[in-house]
Write a structure and sequence with these properties.
Layout: H1 14-21, H2 25-55, E1 73-79, E2 82-91, E3 94-102
Length: about 110
């Protein structure tokens, strides 16, 4: 064990380092346990969100209309209590959509 204080990671903001430097060893151990649990929670939430995105309706079709890129996916939008399919993709900072058809073809 070194007698020198540890060097904080460069990614850690200075105000956080300053705050932690004022804490007692006991409080630092509580913070360490909490931050480890918090990191696991955030990772789990990110995995769940990723799985949810993968489970959404996604169609990779060769019969895309003109102007719809291959990276476009199918989304469902509800308008006036009716559900419709739309092609949707990102174009720079914008989200583009193009109408595909009703979810229930009888409507």
């Amino acid at each position: 064990m070194s007698y020198e204080p540890p060097s904080p990671p460069q990614e850690l903001p200075a105000d956080v380092v300053d705050t932690l430097n004022d804490y007692s060893p006991e409080l630092l151990r509580h913070v360490a346990r909490y931050t480890e649990e918090l990191a696991e929670y955030h990772e789990r939430e990110a995995r769940l969100a990723e799985n949810e995105e993968n489970n959404q309706i996604e169609e990779r079709s060769e019969d895309r209309p003109d102007g719809v890129p291959s990276k476009a996916t199918i989304t469902v939008k509800e308008i006036n209590d009716n559900r419709y399919y739309y092609w949707q993709w990102r174009d720079g900072e914008k989200i583009r959509s193009k109408y595909k058809g009703p979810v229930d073809p009888e409507n």
